[in-house]
Amino acid sequence: MTILCFGDSNTHGTMPMPSLDFDGRFGHEARWPSVMAKALGREVIAEGHPGRTTVHDDPMSGPHRNGIAVLPSLLESHKPLSLVIVKLGTNDLKNCFHVSPADIAFCLERIAGLIRSFLAPKPPQVLIVAPPPILEVGCLAEMFAGGAEKSRQLAPAIQTMCTRIGAHFLDAGSHIAVSPIDGIHYEAEAQVALGLALAAKVRDILG
Could you tell me how far CA 106 lies from the centroid of its own chain? Predict the structure, then answer.
């Protein structure tokens, strides 16, 4: 029973960034997908890409960061899957995209729909994780200007969408907070806490 974690830099294991040229990454065992895998004793595939959005081509970094564009190839290469955990939305809060929390929830709905249709007739369960609220601090503050306020509305918007389409939901902000260093990434303790919280949620879903 394989689980695919489809996310951004916080699934990749990016450390809080004191400067824009910092490229630190937590070791494999310290990242939340690995923590979750160890707790569950299941196969977990981590597909985390720094800067990944839900459905948007990044005007500065390029279209390869568009999540929905790369998702079909990942689903095809890793099937069969029991569960897909989607943990995206933070990068959609960048000022350059000008999208609302409701827009982000709709984009996540498109991703859930793609997972189900692409892997029909036996689609995996889908768990959508709302990211914790961000802070506009440090080297990423200008990039995410205006995003902090929107991020506080994101979990309720995503939860409403998940209820409507019958997807599973977890609010990461109920378990962890972002680092005060850059306001986006997680400290080591948060990676562990999120992995354990998700392990408990996955047990509820898969047994």
Answer: 15
Q: CA-CA-CA-CA torsion for 110, 66, 115, 170, nearest 10 degrees?
A: -80
Tell whether pTM > 0.85: yes
**Residue 183 Rama label (left phi>0; alpha psi -120 to 50; beta):** left
Domain boundaries, position 151: 2-206
Based on the structure, what is the number of domains in the chain? 1
Mean pLDDT across 77-106: 97
pLDDT value of residue 1: 78
How many other C-beta atoms can be found within 10 angstroms of the C-beta atom of residue 171?
A: 16
Residue closest to 111 by CA, chosen among 77, 86, 79, 94? 86
The CATH number that applies at residue 196 is: 3.40.50.1110
Say whether pLDDT at 60 is over 90: no
Give the whole-angstrom CA distance, residue 134 versus residue 19. Answer: 17
Give the model confidence (pLDDT) of 194-206 as tens digits: 999 999 999 999 9
